TrEMBL record, chains A, B, C, D:
Cupin type-2 domain span: 95-162, 267-333
Example GO molecular function: dioxygenase activity
Keyword terms: Dioxygenase, Oxidoreductase
PANTHER family: 1,2-DIOXYGENASE PROTEIN-RELATED, CUPIN
InterPro entries for the chain: Cupin_2 (IPR013096), GDO-like (IPR047183), RmlC-like_jellyroll (IPR014710), RmlC_Cupin_sf (IPR011051)
Nucleotide-binding recorded as keyword: no
UniProt KW Oxidoreductase keyword: yes
Protein name stated in the entry: Gentisate 1,2-dioxygenase
Amino acid sequence: MSQHLNVDPLEELSKQLENDHLGPLWETLGEMVTKEPTHSMKPYLWKWQTIRQHLLKSGELLTVGRKAERRVVYLQNPSLKDKVGFATETLYAGIQLLLPGEVAPSHRHSQGAIRFVIEGDGAFTTVNGEKTYMEEGDLVLTPAWTWHDHGHEGTEPMIWMDGLDVGMVKNLCGSFFELFDEETYPVKGIPDGTISRFAGVGVRPIADRKGKDGYPSPLINYKWDNVKKALEELSQLEPDPFDGYAVDYINPTNGQSADARIGCTMQMLSPGMHTQGHRHVHSVIYHVKKGSGYTVINGEKYEWSTGDFFVIPPWHWHEHGNTGEEEAFLFSINDRPVMEMVGLEMEEVYEKNNGFQEVERIFQP
Amino acid sequence: MSQHLNVDPLEELSKQLENDHLGPLWETLGEMVTKEPTHSMKPYLWKWQTIRQHLLKSGELLTVGRKAERRVVYLQNPSLKDKVGFATETLYAGIQLLLPGEVAPSHRHSQGAIRFVIEGDGAFTTVNGEKTYMEEGDLVLTPAWTWHDHGHEGTEPMIWMDGLDVGMVKNLCGSFFELFDEETYPVKGIPDGTISRFAGVGVRPIADRKGKDGYPSPLINYKWDNVKKALEELSQLEPDPFDGYAVDYINPTNGQSADARIGCTMQMLSPGMHTQGHRHVHSVIYHVKKGSGYTVINGEKYEWSTGDFFVIPPWHWHEHGNTGEEEAFLFSINDRPVMEMVGLEMEEVYEKNNGFQEVERIFQP
Amino acid sequence: MSQHLNVDPLEELSKQLENDHLGPLWETLGEMVTKEPTHSMKPYLWKWQTIRQHLLKSGELLTVGRKAERRVVYLQNPSLKDKVGFATETLYAGIQLLLPGEVAPSHRHSQGAIRFVIEGDGAFTTVNGEKTYMEEGDLVLTPAWTWHDHGHEGTEPMIWMDGLDVGMVKNLCGSFFELFDEETYPVKGIPDGTISRFAGVGVRPIADRKGKDGYPSPLINYKWDNVKKALEELSQLEPDPFDGYAVDYINPTNGQSADARIGCTMQMLSPGMHTQGHRHVHSVIYHVKKGSGYTVINGEKYEWSTGDFFVIPPWHWHEHGNTGEEEAFLFSINDRPVMEMVGLEMEEVYEKNNGFQEVERIFQP
Amino acid sequence: MSQHLNVDPLEELSKQLENDHLGPLWETLGEMVTKEPTHSMKPYLWKWQTIRQHLLKSGELLTVGRKAERRVVYLQNPSLKDKVGFATETLYAGIQLLLPGEVAPSHRHSQGAIRFVIEGDGAFTTVNGEKTYMEEGDLVLTPAWTWHDHGHEGTEPMIWMDGLDVGMVKNLCGSFFELFDEETYPVKGIPDGTISRFAGVGVRPIADRKGKDGYPSPLINYKWDNVKKALEELSQLEPDPFDGYAVDYINPTNGQSADARIGCTMQMLSPGMHTQGHRHVHSVIYHVKKGSGYTVINGEKYEWSTGDFFVIPPWHWHEHGNTGEEEAFLFSINDRPVMEMVGLEMEEVYEKNNGFQEVERIFQP
Ligand SMILES: [Fe+2]
Ligand SMILES: [Fe+2]
Ligand SMILES: [Fe+2]
Ligand SMILES: [Fe+2]
Ligand SMILES: [Fe+2]
Ligand SMILES: [Fe+2]
Ligand SMILES: [Fe+2]
Ligand SMILES: [Fe+2]
């Protein structure tokens, strides 16, 4: 009887609700609808030498083919360790090794994918039969649900970054995958026709007048020389306060993101440049194309040099510094296109302390 | 020494990778990129009497105000019990009770929200100061990031369904929330002006020529009489094979979903109607506006009657049957608008067995 | 020799240029690029009794069929008399008579066309085989390049207004025309299915999810009762300062103009209402659905009563007054959709004299 | 009395209609709604030496300034001689001469304008204060309603083509024009910043993320080297059957026409190339950037060489031949963007005689 006296009737109700697979919003509203984004993702940084060494080892142990479709070592964010392949809540990055003569067979999936070439040349990608050779610094697209395979006609190992929106598609329960009947998709047209069709700024083949929806992008290889030159020219103007000199890769048919869902960006930081802090809803995976410096993320300093990867979670303050003698180049992928489509992107500028966070910790992998 | 003999070098590599927060794609590709959508969400059905009884109890125990912003009992899908408020991976449904004289104070959030009125009248919603009264069967919008409050000028308890894209926003890490400085947002214009502005099919006030992007929707209350009439008229034509007579609620400014991210649909099933099975990526929360029947989901039969709620997970076969003597009306919300924006929607028709699944089980709550 | 002294060398150059089919911009820039729109179109007003009497006469003299495809008396703006069928520089209006049992045979053309029913019932229109009956006050669409024919199952003469963008298509050199092989296009589905599919405000059949580009509009008959009710409801709100209570007819698929190029608008002026003057690039053909009043156009007063037609040229000040005892209804078509697509629409409010022009003349036909 | 016997009552009615500013559609339908486009425009070709000689003469006689805003000799199509400045029914082309030190003062107009540089360098254009230098072969935009002026810091006369949609805007009654208060608009940022911002294919400065509607285009100078290289690369692929190797100039923000209403195209014809005939609704003004050859238009041969201008009317068969030893380059402007916006574009392939018209006449200017 005294027992009854102690029972809070609201608690009692909550228990009954739980029993019936219902819940009391008055207790949990703050968990569902938070003042600012909440998630369990934390920043992390992976050193290139660690990745590369494991990758080369896998090259000795594994053969690429229908049994192991791709030889890839991927980033597993330790704060998301229960979610296989999550570098951020939406994005995946893998580092792929293809040896001379190997074929990564043809398949397609609803995940979008981009490739950023880290080392080597002589390998190629085909997208629905369009073949393009990959060279260091190139961005190659294999848009969602397009058939794609890779081959290698060169003589040295070839290493590139794969970026896919694994988490995004997982969260939205939209994953589909198919193997192509043959090992490779029949090649159409001449190799690198995609590059020949888009060799000038601000012009487009008239053949492109039809098929205006722009999917998949008719341009599938964004050459490094071209992007580098664009950034050098851009550096004659004022830098962006948060990103230095920076360009987005775009689909020339519609001016939107090159990959419809995965934003791709290349930044150039001048020697000594230190950008102002800001934060935004979209998350980012960074790969250091070249150079050395650091990024401060929510008060912790992540020091990077050529080849490293690091990730910035949603709504985390961040700012970049170049400590090298030369320009630093940071390639990155993000989920900004989706955030903007669905109307969830927000941005805030770090105003305190002249825009620079106080560094409280230095990250150690 | 014998130990070394037993170690598979690939396993050894995998361990080292794990240690360095990396992963071997050759082991896990199938987990990340699945042939079909995988997720842990299962169907479920909640009986109206259970919900209603708990809700009325909460009405006795709890006062609405700044301490308990909303008096709501929400669906907690048992298959997603670690995710507070998830009815599906993307959508939330709550059942809200407002008593005469109460005020659910003004706030805004990046989650979109819709209200579907279940019982009563006399309560109202304001959206950025636009005031509209709620009657049984009405759909009322409070679009993402608009200020909204509810009040009650009537004499009887008022019950409605809240639909929010809690899971969607959570997965995309985009939740923002703000309280309004005052309890209620100042009312602008006359009550139900939104209805007066949109009282004819296919016509729109010329004031609406400007501000074409259509956000937020200028129409915020979709009256039940109007929707019912639309369905009755529609029933003179061929029914949709999968959904019977069905309409989507749309934003008259752009012809797109009434809420930009949450699809809203009303279906009418004639007596005896049994629709053909299909499945799609988008998931659905159903509320039985009126009638009795069943829905077969992946071979399990969910029997429903007036007021019940049930959920259909992504890529699950489903078909509907009306076993009552009269038309059945099913209201539902879904994440189809987002799936289409991001290009992940797919649909498949159930072809076997003349389109009807074999019923293997009957669901018991 | 003296001759040479008199010749202005610039004049001499101009003559030589003319000879070579060239021109001197320094003389003519002001003609090509004018400070404000210039054109030769003037306002005009046609009395209904004049039109009707001629039209009925034509009914006695002429039979509709492949020899005379349509029995129509059209407005010929006297200021544009060299341009056959021009009521404005872009728009045409005809008044069509169809007698019981007659068939206006099937054809299609690149001109868009709308019908507004003035008298009678029992006639129908088919659009690509979709059949709809026409009643007084209805707006019926036969979008550009759709097959259309009219028939008459009633017992009394039927009169309606035809609106086409004859001048627009002529100016853009885009006229195409084809006769259908048969007299009538085979009817598909049930009559007035288009109305049954769109019988509710803000809802749309789910069948309409596909085929999103919205051309041609799935809704082809906008019933008068519906529009009238919309205007009555709208009159509970503030009127538009320039147009009173006014709605645009829209395509429910995309929220844009019902006819993609021809804007259609219905205005209601309360007894005694006198709107403020403004002017805009788009031109307008007005038909007085019901009532009596006047429109002041660039200082001249055009008095109208039920059935009359009048036209407002581009960039002409205009304001409307209702002098009757009841609501006046003005139906109008305009070229605003095209002006907005191409970015040429401009608007200016008449600020002087409290927004009312001084009336300098009263128009006499 | 005998008089009465002779009168055809339909003729009588027609006369009465004419008297009342009405018309009988049964007589004139075929004039308004034609089977194919009808217009009075004919092809024409202007020799470069004629134009250039007159233009240089005007340079001796006329000073540029507020009295003569621009020193331009324009094409006056003899078939449209009553329409000042019409080269086609929609488009204008002028050839402008600016001498060292001169300033063509700042103004803006609702006509869109493009510049294609024919001779010289050292002159510049500013667009809303953005300054860019003009070199041979460059395409420079001054979009509709943007402030623009030209100056000349070089030492030699500068000649360029102006392309405006004079006829389009005239036909649509949408001409507006304003002088800027000062002679020149204040320059913002560094010269040629527009080029530095868009120096790479398929990439765009992140500053461009905002302001997505793309008007006016952020890229206002399309350098010749860049376009030439694009065409050379394109020539590794199959030529377009009707246009050889051809690119459209596009706005990188949205992938649409560089000027929103005036299409701009550059074609390269290999030595000996002879394209297949076709016709389309859009009309074209051609300028021979370089080379010699001919264009057959509706059976008449128009022979051209470097610098010449010629025009192709709507819906006229045409095919091109290069008779020179080197690549020929044809620059052209057209009204295709508008035709596509409004839905009037059509195209037909010339199928007879293997796609080549029989030449019946050779044009003599
Ligand atoms: Fe793949
Ligand atoms: Fe950032
Ligand atoms: Fe809320
Ligand atoms: Fe379904
Ligand atoms: Fe017609
Ligand atoms: Fe007006
Ligand atoms: Fe100009
Ligand atoms: Fe052509």
